[in-house]
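Today's session is about reading a structure prediction critically. Students often jump straight to the picture, but the first step is always the sequence itself: look for stretches that repeat, for charged clusters, for runs of hydrophobic residues. Only then move on to the predicted structure, which in these notes is written as discrete structure tokens rather than atom positions. Here is the chain we will use throughout the hour.
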Amino acid sequence: MGKKRNILLDTINNSYDLGQVLSTYALYKTLEELGYDCVVNDRYLDEKSFGYQYLKERCCMVAGMNLRMTREEYYSTFYAFITGASNRWRLCKDEKVEDTFFQQIIPQLKKIAYAPSFGEDCDYSVGPKNAAYFMMKTYNAISVADDNTLNILNMEFDVSCERVCNPILLSDKFSYTDNGKEEGLFIASFIEEPDIQKQKVVSLAEEKVRYRVANYNIKELCIDNYIELIQKSSLVITDSNAIVHLAIVYKKPFIAILSRNKKKSLEVISTLEQLGLEERIIFVEDDVKEKSYLYKKPIKYGVVDYKLKAFIEHSKEWLGKCLE
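Below is the predicted structure for this chain, in token form.
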């Protein structure tokens, strides 16, 4: 395996973050499609997490390489380093800013950021923020998938970026094991942060569609469950950015319950606006009954796919050119 084709993928600092795990798998498969050999950096992967369990069976990871060198020496054998995914540039517990931006990578290595985000805001203190400013200048290319990250990079770091699709959308399917968890017609409800307004949306869906609602505790599911349940469901209701993107991958009708007061909502709002699907949003600040027609309204994925295909092709082309 020649060095020229070796890519180190560093997209996870929280292996319980569904968006990071799905993005890692999608980028991994995309890089394979582009002809590169990819290895997932597992330095922040908790072996008990659903992220580790899912990726270890499907991706080559640093821990599985039986290294006879230090991790830093191993990093130097790669041709390029790619980071990205939801919340990847949000400092996790005990993570230093130089680790977030992989400053220990040797200078001659290509450094590419594919659609990382900061979450709600860039909450770095002055010192780390100044350090991050200079570290970003060492990247060969940076892209974004949402308006919030675009504004942060433009206004706070003076960084220009390419617009690409959310990394989850790069894959047209995700590997999973069918556990026979649900059968028949049902509405799949995935709520990360429950409240009264969100419960009203779910209850109205059950009343209007007259299918049973299967409520899932996101913290208790494995990745295979997410994919299986979305693929089998008749309607997906969620406040999760990652679940909305997964529903689009599997061409499922969905309702995204979001808040205008949370900037992290822009991660999915930006995608929905790009694809002409912003109608599928119900904001918790509004009267949820105003959009009760959505429960029975299908999504014309024939129209959506035309836009999505072009967006994905542009994103893959950008990534491919960055690696040349």
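Discussion point for the tutorial: The CA atoms of residues 141 and 190 lie 35 Å apart.
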